[in-house]
Amino acid sequence: MLIAVILGFIFALLVPLFSKFLKNAIPFLYSALPLSLFIYFLQFLGEIKFRGHILFRFEWVPSMGIDLSFRLDGLSLLFALMITGIGFLVFAYTAYYLKGHQYLDRFYGYLSMFMASMLGVVLSDNLMSMFIFWELTSISSYFLIGFNNTDPASRKSALTALSITGFGGLVMLSGIILLQATGGSYSFTELLNSSEIIKNSTSYAWIITLFFVGAFTKSAQFPFHFWLPGAMKAPTPVSTYLHSATMVKAGIYLLARFTPLLGDTFWWNSTLITIGAVTMVYAAIHSVLRVDLKSILAYSTISALGILVFLIGIGTEKALLAAGIFILAHALYKAALFLITGIIDHETGSRDVSKLSGLKQVMMPVAVAGFIAALSSAGVPLLLGFISKEVMYEATSQFGDWAILLTVLAVLTKILLLVAGFWAGIKPFVGKLPLEFGEAKLPSPLLWIPPLLLGVLSLGFGTFPSLITESLIQPVFSSISGSDTIVQLKLWHGFNLVLMLSILTLLAGGILYWLWKPSNDLFQKTVQFEVVSPQNIIENGAKSFGSFAGLWTGFFQNGYLRNYVITILAFLTLLMAYRLFGEVDIYIDWDQISNVSHYEIIVVVLMIISIFFAISTNSRTTAIVALGVVGFANCLFFLIYSAPDLAMTQFSIDTLTVLLFMLVLVKLPKNKQYSSKGIKVRDALLSMMFGSLIAILTLEVFEEPSSSEVSKYFADNAYLLAKGRNVVNVILVDYRGFDTMIETVVLVIAAAGVFSLMKLDLNPSKKDL
Questions:
Q1: Phi-psi region at 705: left, alpha or beta (left = phi > 0; alpha = psi -120 to 50)
Q2: How would you classify residue 70: left for phi > 0, otherwise alpha for psi between -120 and 50, otherwise beta?
Q3: Extended strands (E) in 256-346
Q4: Which of 111, 398, 553, 734 meets the CB 3.0–4.6 Å disulfide criterion with 722?
């Protein structure tokens, strides 16, 4: 299982090498990757049917409870099959759609990395490893959405998608850590045993809130939905893959996965119902206000994701069953519609649905695929979309006091989505072929076979639901609901309310499609409300934050070393003063302090005189020498208190510092008065306050009981373990070897920087003169 997950990453690393030797064959060979993975996961259908779930354990960081364990059950298997199955069709489709593109190998690398990341998300049993794969999907989708990197709009869309989904992932990470602290494990399988403990904990509200942010941002729920339409700047294969079966479904997967663990509470259900209902209605309305095929499909996708959140929020067995069926149904028909849109754009150069018509005359197989996908989207009998719609209506109509409202919202959404689906899958193919599209032709089978195959699957699963009921839908339902109820899918349930609602949806949607013609004028009327749109509000908030960050950075990081030192010292002074005088009882036992000798008095007086010279002289040379005297006086203290090693180290450092300062003086301009008296007074006061606090803090440390365990350990083991008699040297070289090495590297880098600055010629023009 681990190899199956990381195989996409391996291929992504090797594809540049492959492309050099197999430049023409690589697209077709690359399609074998998702196909082989699809076949691999397909063989688990029978085992999952009887065993429920399978665990694959691989240790990673056992000390922290983080591993690469994978859980394969009905839900994860469904997603794995969609990721690899639709992935295979997208890989094959891309071979012709982007044929001859100079960065085709790079595109396949991003695509395989994304596929592997999605497999990691849906298969991970460990929540921390799931988060890592979760963020990898955001990063790889960033590359895919911004693949046309010469287009500013593509770059902006990619950055927006990364910002929104990446932010949600980091928020979700907080929820994962809090969930582990409450449930005691990162393993989802183990956490299932602590479901009631988690729900009854004081952290439950925070946990689900943090998880909601992660799921809503990834699955484009209101008000985070706007990144998804922008992502349509990506090539059509990307739109197909990310927005039908993979990335946007990751948030849905998260909610469905955690329903048995965190669901079935008022706050869980009511939040999901509310957000899902708002999203599905809002996006459905927008889908019929657009004329660009990709925009229509983008908003209808957002609406479909809202329906899934809505159903998971309802939380009844019927609702969860409807969600499981709709995940598959939507993936099949929406992937087909996206691929068909790519074909239309590829052959006609237009995605304007108000201008497209009559294309069935030149691309009949594509039209057949579009009709099937549109009818499945509408929920016409004999198609899988019909079964999911029937079960959804059954779930909403049985939801107690809220049944009428929820059913009305569901019916309204499905009516609007029927119109959007017909615009995308039927409208471009019926009617008279315009002269401007007279040169359009049937493309390569690599383009039209994938959507036609998806349409056949929608028709086959809808006509013969028994093909997937026991092997796939039953395990999916059991994984989401945790129930052992036997699932039965039928085409005919008799004359009842649900059937009447289905007929109403089809009639109302058909009439609306007949009467409502796509027009850009409808969308233009909504532009006046953009000022209060979530996208505008969030983008303005981001700009305001950026402006504030600029002011903040300009104030504190203004390029003056003096200001940096002042900021640091002022902050430390305030912090230590607050802690010492506000929360610490200052007590100094002067009797413990030894008597002052005349040697110490002499050294202290010498230091004071040197400090006075350093701060009062106008000569840089005098100031440097005075500071050197302070350092050498400090060496005398080490000698007085029997620390010759420290004294020699301090002596070497001070000597080197004085020499370096003197060398630097050669390159500096002549003396200039940089500080006014006011600045000098400010610096003096800050220095005295900081020095006084350090002195008080040092005296307070003497009053604290000291532990000699560490000192004893180093003294006992310095020679035994490191073969050195000088304990200080052994600590620096052996026990803290890496720290010392890194400090040395930093000094070398700093020295190289200083040397480069000394060689820098800021006035090259003068030499030419």
A1: beta
A2: beta
A3: none
A4: 734
Q: What is the chain's alpha carbon radius of gyration, rounded to the nearest angstrom?
A: 35
Helices 247-262 + 104-123 axis angle, to 10: 10
Rounded to whole angstroms, the Cα distance separating 183 from 258 reads 13
Burial of 165 (C-beta count, 10 Å sphere; 0-12/13-18/19+): buried
Secondary structure (DSSP) of 139-154: HHHHHHHT-STTSHHH
Within 13 A of 674's CA, how many CA atoms are on the CB side?
6
Give the Cα-Cα-Cα angle 408, 411, 416 (nearest 5 degrees).
Answer: 125
Going by C-alpha positions, the residue among 604, 624, 605 that lies closest to residue 614 is: 624
d(Cα 398, Cα 396) in Å, to the nearest integer?
5
Distance CA 543, CA 163 (A): 13
> What is residue 70's three-state secondary structure?
strand
| CA distances, 744 to each of 738, 750, 751 (Å) | 10, 10, 10
Structure tokens at 123: 């298969």
Residue 106 near residue 18 (C-beta atoms within 8 A): no
* 294-307 pLDDT per residue, tens: 999 999 999 999 99
User: What span, in angstroms and rounded, lies between the C-alpha atoms of 448 and 364?
Assistant: 10
Q: Report the C-alpha gap between 25 and 104 in whole angstroms.
A: 12
For residue 228, give every residue at least 6 positions away whose Cβ sits within 8 Å of its Cβ, in sequence order, or none.
161, 220, 243, 248, 298, 301, 302
Task: Tell me what the pLDDT averaged over the chain comes to.
Answer: 86
- Tell me the mean pLDDT in the region 667-682: 72
How far is 385 from 372, CA to CA, in rounded Å? 10
For residue 376, name the pLDDT band (cuts at 50, 70, 90): very high
Is 60 strand, coil or helix? Answer: strand
Whether the CB-CB separation of 301 and 337 falls below 8 Å is answered with no
Q: Could you identify the residue written with the tokens 């009709």?
A: 371
| Closest to 476 measured CA to CA, from 320, 610, 621 | 320
The token duo for 163 is: 């910002």
Instruction: Please work out, in degrees rounded to the nearest 5, the angle formed at the alpha carbon of residue 131 by the alpha carbons of 126 and 135.
Output: 150
167 closest CA partner among 116, 126, 224, 99: 224
